[in-house]
Description:
Blueprint: H1 11-20, H2 30-38, H3 48-73, H4 83-99, H5 123-126, H6 133-144
Amino acid sequence: MTATIQVRVTPWGRWFHELIQQPKLEQYDIAEMNLRCAVDLPGMKNELVKLGIDKINEWTDRVENFTKTAQKRLRGKRRHFTEAQFCVVAMIECLQRHIGIKFNFGFMKGEYDASDSRNLFIHGVLTGFGGTCASLAHGLHCHWS
Length: 145
């Protein structure tokens, strides 16, 4: 006797299936993909995709302006940094000190628990929940690189 399994395909499942069929995935924004992949997981709401992208774009402008201002202010005084290193340090300073992005140290306490998607995807960072190694390094770096 063979059992029949019923599979319910969600709108997200259809979207993801269509996405991975695309010949050139590199044309897609990694931050947007990160947000879209988290839709329907605990801690994520569909409306956060647009809000998240808008917030990242705002943060990108703030980081760019901060970096340009710092470059003018410190011209000739940053002998220990290459241009690329200086830009990374400026980005980190702006994100941490001026925007308020922080690491979610609570995630490191106790046993590993991946039940809250805010710990794994960038919407945790974007909503003020804090980030983890997965969400800070993967999601945000890719958008600004």
